[in-house]
């Protein structure tokens, strides 16, 4: 009897930078990163008290999810944030609800957000032509 190997599905995530700010030889210059779907392993990372205290839980979780052969340290903050949102969508879905106290009215308000409709800040990409 042959042993079956379980393969966790992956998705290609588009980076907000479109890869334009990375040198051509860097795999991030493709503008995409392959990420796997979250498993119990990543859930354990996110709830690890020691990693949370050290402020490393999210970084470790993202490193575990990224399947592309990249150096995590090369990622810009904006691209890291996009990967974090993508990880949230892949793990728990696109809908995100939260409540906050409106500072103007003092009332508690509930907000429902579709994470897939978030817009990137517009950038003049022509200023990056000399990088690559």
Main features:
globular; 132 residues; alpha+beta; single chain; two-stranded antiparallel ribbon
Characterization of this structure:
Strand 3 (95-101) and strand 4 (108-114) form a beta hairpin. The strands form 2 sheets. The chain has a two-stranded antiparallel sheet. The protein has a two-stranded antiparallel sheet with strand order 3-4. Helix 1 (40-46) packs antiparallel against helix 3. The protein is α+β, with helices and mostly antiparallel strands. The chain has 4 helices and 4 strands, in the order E-E-H-H-H-H-E-E. The protein starts with 9 loop residues before the first strand and ends in an 18-residue tail after the last strand. The chain has helices at residues 40-46, 49-54, 57-65, 77-92, and strands at residues 10-14, 32-36, 95-101, 108-114.
Order of helices and strands: EEHHHHEE
- Determine the structural class based on helices, strands and strand pairing: alpha+beta
Strand order of the largest sheet: 1-2
The helix tally amounts to 4
Beta-strand portion reads 15-25%
The amount of helix comes to 25-40%
Main beta sheet:
2 strands, antiparallel
Which descriptor suits the 3D outline?
globular
The CA-CA distance between the termini, in Å, is 52 Å
Quaternary arrangement of the chains shown? single chain
Mean pLDDT: 90
Number of strand elements: 4
Q: Stretches where pLDDT falls below 50 for ≥5 residues?
A: none
Q: Supply Rg.
A: 18 Å
């Amino acid at each position: 009897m042959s042993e079956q190997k379980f393969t966790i599905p992956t998705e290609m995530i588009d980076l907000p930078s479109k890869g334009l700010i990375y040198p051509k030889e860097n795999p991030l210059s493709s503008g995409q990163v392959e990420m796997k779907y979250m498993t119990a392993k990543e859930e354990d990372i996110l709830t690890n008290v020691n990693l949370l205290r050290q402020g490393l839980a999210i970084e470790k979780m993202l490193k575990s999810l990224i399947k592309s052969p990249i150096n995590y340290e090369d990622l810009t903050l904006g691209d890291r944030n996009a990967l974090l949102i993508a990880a949230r969508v892949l793990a728990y879905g696109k809908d995100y609800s939260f409540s906050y106290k409106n500072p103007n009215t003092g009332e508690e308000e509930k907000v429902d957000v579709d994470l897939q409709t978030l817009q990137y800040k517009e950038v003049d990409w022509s200023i990056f032509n000399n990088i690559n």
